[in-house]
Amino acid sequence: MLDTLEYLILLELLNNPTITVTKLALKLDSSRPTVTKYLKKLKEEGIIRNTIANVSPERLNLMVVDVLAFVSSYENLLLLEKACNEHPYTYYRSRIYGGKFGLFMIFYIPIGSTSNINAFFKKLQQNNIINDYQIYESNGISYSSSSDT
User: Fold this and answer.
1) How many angstroms separate the CA atoms of 46 and 43, rounded?
2) pTM of the model
3) Is a pLDDT exceeding 50 seen at residue 149?
4) Residues 6+ apart with CB under 8 A from 122
């Protein structure tokens, strides 16, 4: 069971995942060492997972590419997920359910290498892992759900 400060920390992180520990401590009228101690405890208990770096792809000469890929079976969905897990530029993936079955993926790829990501999906299609796919270059809008905790 969470105590009051742990609960307030979790609520604040849900509402503002990029808040710094210092700002979190000020907002909760607590000390930085106390908040750090509670964050460590929440991580050790598995309530909070690892902190994710907030990366600016363009500063690394990377571009953001969104991909929709559709499969015909759950087994193929698992194979596609495995391929994405092993691909070095996969940033994010989420399953699609409904009328079609597949994955929505985000890749951070080197600028000018769209043809390589296209070849990757073309190969998955040739091997009958995916039925169809669509690649979209990012519109430059980015989001983050990370924290410095």
Assistant:
1) 5
2) 0.59
3) no
4) none
